[in-house]
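Purpose: get a first structural picture of the assembly so the mutagenesis plan has something to point at.
Setup: two entries, given in the order below. No constraints added.
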Amino acid sequence: MALVRKCSRQTVALLAALMERPRAWQYGYELSKETGLKSGTLYPILMRLSDQGLLNSCWKDAERPGRPPRHVYRLTATGLALAREQVEVSVESESGLRPIKAGAR
Amino acid sequence: MQVSPCEREEWAQAMSREVDEIPSEREALRWALGCLQASCHERLKSMRLTSWWPVRWGMALWIALLAIDALFYAGITLTYKLGLFTEHYHYPQNVPLLEVTPLWEPLLTLVTGVVFLLAIVLILRRSRVAFGAVVAPFAIMLLQFAVRFSRPESGYLQSLSIVYQKSPFAVIWPIAGLAITILICLALWHDRRTPAPLYE
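Result (C-alpha cells, whole complex):
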C-alpha cells in the first residue's frame, strides 16, 4: 500500500469543505465559517495550497452593487484527488479502523 | 503600511476585502487581527536573514572563530608531524597526544578551516552556496570530534567532564558553540530556500 502523507487537521477540514462543492467558487469568510478556522490559520493554508497547484483562485464581482470584487477559491483536479485521499485517511484514523486479517477474530 | 511581502499582495487584498463582508464589528476586528497574523507569518517566511547586516556579520564572525580554531589546530599538529618544532615548544604535555594523532586528521582540519574561510566570503556576499560551505566543514568537524572521542588517549572525554573542568559552566561553552553553529546552518538553509526578494 502506498504511504499517504497526512495533512494537518486544519488542512483536512479545509479540503473537506472545498470538496463538498468542488465546482463552486467559495469565499474566504464562507470557508472560515464552515471550517471554524480563524483567518490567521485559513489564509496561510489557502496560500500554500495555491502555491502547490492544488487550489484555483480568482476575483469575482461582488453580489451587492458598489462593493469591490472578492477572492474566491476552488480545488484543482489534483487538489480534489488529494482532498479525497486526505479525508479518507482522516476518517479511517479517527474511527480507528484497521484492516482485519483473514481468519483472525 | 503593508505587512505582506510583495509577492503576496493579491492575498493581502483578498483578506482585506473579506473584512467588508463581515456583518459584526467585533468579528470583523478578530478577522483583521487574524489577517495581520497571517501577513506577518508570510513576511517572516519571505525574509532572508542574511539581508540584515548585523546577522550577516555576526554569522561571519562566528565562522571566522571556527576557522581560526581549525587552522590553529592544523598548524600546530602539522608542524609537529613534519618535525618543524623547535625546543621552544611551550606545551610539552600535548606531545603524547600529538604523537598518536594520525596525519590525515590535521590535513582534514586544514581543509575544514580553508572552507570555513571561503564560507565567510560567501556569507558576506549573501550567496546561497554559503549553506553548503558551512555545513560541509561543520559535518567533517563533528565527524572528527566523534573519532577523537572514540580514542581514549585523545583526552577529549576527560576534558569535557565536569570533574576535569571543576565548574559545570565550562561544559556549557562547547554545547553553546554547537547550538550557535546549528542555528547558523538553519538560518542559511532558510535563506537558501527563500526566493530572492523582488526589491532590495
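The radius of gyration of chain B is 25 Å.
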